């Protein structure tokens, strides 16, 4: 029995052994929060697309033309926000899965 206990203690003292809590619940909550933010941005983008489909179809076919329109909310700005949020979402989803 004492030998088993010593072996266990030696294993626990090994520098290569570390057990940490993963906080899976919190990762899930953050993912759901980011997912909801992305869904909201997706709705905004689709609303812009619908408006352009009615008013200026060429804006949907040309990023440059779209960027030059001063009277419309910036699709470019929204796309940059979506891109950043997707990167954050990807990083969080990568860290929430067990390795």
Q: Tell me, what's the shape? A: rod-shaped
Oligomer: single chain
Helix/strand/pairing category: mainly alpha
Total helices: the number is 5
Average pLDDT over all residues = 82
Tell me the strand percentage band.
Answer: under 5%
Helix content: over 70%
- Series of secondary-structure elements, N-terminal to C-terminal: HHHHH
Low-confidence stretches: none
Report the strand count.
0
Distance between the termini: 33 Å
Q: Taking Cα atoms only, what radius of gyration do you get, to the nearest Å?
A: 25 Å
- Sheet having the most strands: none
Short summary:
The chain is built from five helices and no strands. It is mainly alpha-helical.
List keywords for this structure.
99 residues; mainly alpha; 5 helices; 77% helix; 0% strand
Descriptive report:
Helix 2 runs antiparallel to helix 5. The longest helix is centred in the middle third of the chain and has 32 residues, at 24-55. 1% of the residues are buried. 77% of the residues lie in helices and 0% in strands. The chain has helices at 2-13, 24-55, 57-61, 63-67, 75-96. By secondary structure, the protein is an all-alpha fold. It is built from five helices and no strands. The two termini are 33 Å apart. It is rod-shaped.
């Amino acid at each position: 029995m004492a030998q088993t206990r010593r072996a266990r203690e030696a294993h626990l003292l090994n520098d290569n052994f570390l057990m940490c809590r993963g906080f899976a619940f919190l990762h899930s909550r953050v993912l759901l929060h980011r997912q909801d933010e992305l869904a909201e941005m997706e709705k905004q983008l689709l609303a812009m697309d619908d408006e352009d489909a009615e008013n200026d179809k060429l804006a949907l076919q040309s990023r440059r033309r779209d960027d030059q329109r001063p009277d419309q909310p910036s699709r470019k700005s929204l796309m940059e926000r979506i891109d950043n949020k997707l990167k954050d979402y990807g990083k969080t989803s990568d860290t929430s899965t067990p390795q």
